[in-house]
Amino acid sequence: MSSSAELKQLVRRLPKTELHLHIEGSLEPDMVFALAERNGISLPYASAAELAQKYDFENLQSFLDLYYQATDVLQTEEDFFDLTWAYLQRCAAENVVHVEIFFDPQSHTDRGIPFAEVVQGIDRALQQAQSELAISSQLIMCFLRHLPEDSALETWQQAQPWLHLIHGVGLDSSESGFPPELFQRVFAQARAAGLKCVAHAGEEGPADYIEQALDLLAVDRIDHGVRITESDTLMRRVAIEGIALTVCPLSNVRLCVYDQLADHPLLSLLDDGLQVMINSDDPAYFGGYLCANYDAVIDALAPNQAQIVQLVKNSFAASFMPEVEKLARLQEIDALL
Ligand SMILES: Nc1ncnc2[nH]cnc12
Ligand SMILES: [Zn+2]
């Protein structure tokens, strides 16, 4: 039996991936203030500490309201570079060797920021992380589901010159009342162009949204997906088809999907054979980066070593990295045990 301290050490020793990370959700309060100053923006808070005090959310929407407001400080290519580079340096410190990063272009282009500034700033940091930190990455462009599909289709058009930098598309923002079926045309176009497809589903919305994302959007992975526990049939299907759920434990507690982490179904989903793994979602808002999520799971759910190793291995197995690299990483993990 490993102690919780030993498991936390093991987590740090093993290479890891992060598959569910909104780059705008890594915008720390200090950086909000630094970028506001650089860009001459005045904020309705006296200090970073006062802003951080507002991070007490009732649900997904109360978080999103603040999250979209904070993104207003992101204005230039350099801002997007700095934001992404800060996240990647944290990855290096935590032995995260591969990341699949979401970005929300509409939350920037709707404010008049050119798509090119956003994608080039993020990509420059990703390239630098590959050469200086040996971190590989894929970029996933998310459509905001609270906006009409026509806006997503317009964004898809804006992305055309940049598709060489974009690996996949996703669907995020307010879930309830915005089912996946509303976005079938834009996902069909992305899939036809050879992009991977993912969608947030079953975070606050019902299990039926997970089924819609699979059947109508043909997604490769489900983001969150925890409300799958409401359907035994869907659980069996997702286990058999090997569809991964990118679970975000601290996020689920901070957005009141569960009252406490001890109620989280992560380990029961794992033991039922679902391909789940741990991610941080919006770490600047939810109490920590990837290792903090592992630590919280270790403290609240008392997993054994085999379960921790399986979660780490699932993060590679479910990634979009080339199969040979995946296999090499899985072998590397076995060699470290
Ligand atoms: N947890 C989340 N759910 C939906 N949309 C998001 N955008 C950023 N974080 C999100
Ligand atoms: Zn998310």
Automatic annotation (TrEMBL):
Originating organism: Halioxenophilus aromaticivorans
GO molecular function, one term: zinc ion binding
EC number of this enzyme: 3.5.4.2
HAMAP family in UniProt: Adenine_deaminase (MF_01962)
Similarity comment: Belongs to the metallo-dependent hydrolases superfamily. Adenosine and AMP deaminases family. Adenine deaminase type 2 subfamily.
Adenosine deaminase domain segment(s): 15-335
Catalytic activity from the UniProt record: adenine + H2O + H(+) = hypoxanthine + NH4(+)
Identification of the protein by name: Adenine deaminase
GO terms (BP aspect): adenine catabolic process; hypoxanthine salvage; nucleotide metabolic process
Keywords: Hydrolase, Metal-binding, Nucleotide metabolism, Zinc
Residues given in the record as substrate binding sites: D282
Residues bound to Zn(2+): H20, H22, H200, D281
Cofactor: Zn(2+)
Cofactor note: Binds 1 zinc ion per subunit.
